Amino acid sequence: MNIRIELNDVSEVLNKFNSDMINQELDDYIISFCENKFFRKKSISLEVYGIKSSKDREIFQDMIHNHYKNKVNFYSKLDKFDDYYRLCLLILGILAILLSENFVSFLSELFLIAGWVVIWEIVYDVIFNEIRRKRKENIYKKLANSDIIFIDK
Description:
By secondary structure, the chain is mainly alpha-helical. The protein contains three helices and three strands, in the order E-H-E-H-H-E. The chain has helices at 24-34, 54-100, 105-144; strands spanning 2-6, 45-49, 147-151. It has a three-stranded parallel sheet with strand order 1-2-3, with no helix packed on it. Strand 1, helix 1 (24-34) and strand 2 (45-49) form a beta-alpha-beta unit. Helix 2 (54-100) runs antiparallel to helix 3. The chain is elongated. It starts with a strand and ends with a strand.
């Protein structure tokens, strides 16, 4: 599936505050197009209109690929950190449930409820947040390896 991008100049791609980053509006356009439910399993290619010089084409291609490779790296580091965080919370939840056996009435109920709430939060994070993050990471991987086709008007 192709994403059509019409530009007048390569400067439209660059962020006006940092020339090492792509424009947020362009990024939002590409990502919103990719999040279409029919688009997930297909390969991605970008059709770029309006960039004529080979130097500008190379700059555009490097900017797009590097931007999405950086996002893939960020998400993989975030997943690694999140796994450690969930493991610590799981241990904490199990300890709270085990401690609930040693106390009487009020403290017992408090530790039991706290332990199950922590474990539920881990399950919720895995089921909902991690799946959403993996979907975005897959889109970023496809964009980092996407074909960029330059078309002269």
